[in-house]
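Checklist before submission:
- one chain only
- standard amino acids only
- sequence pasted in full

Submission:
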Amino acid sequence: MISTAVSFITSPVTRYALIGVGALGFVAWVRHDAAEDAVARLTVDFKEEVEERETAEESRQLAAGQEALAEAEKRAQHAAQYAMDLQEKVDELEDELQMRGVSCPIPDDLRERLLDIR
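Returned file contents:
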């Protein structure tokens, strides 16, 4: 039995079979290593692409925020100017009313007759 095992191991067919299995194992290892390298490269490329997209989106949002801020400041300045214009008009009306001295330019008797018409 031992002589059969030794003759089987030392036979040319077994040697070729072992060489073939070794070659297949080496090819499988090389393919596996190449696949891991490809996955690593794709992962790095994907991460870089995601970072680029995130940076672009952050820049876009920052620009939109700055544009909105500028527009809001512009509207605030316009509103402040409008409020100042209205305050000037109110002051002018108050001054005009104080200069008149009389609350109503219509004489009292005419006012009474107009109220009685009602």
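Reviewer check: The two ends are 138 Å apart (CA to CA).
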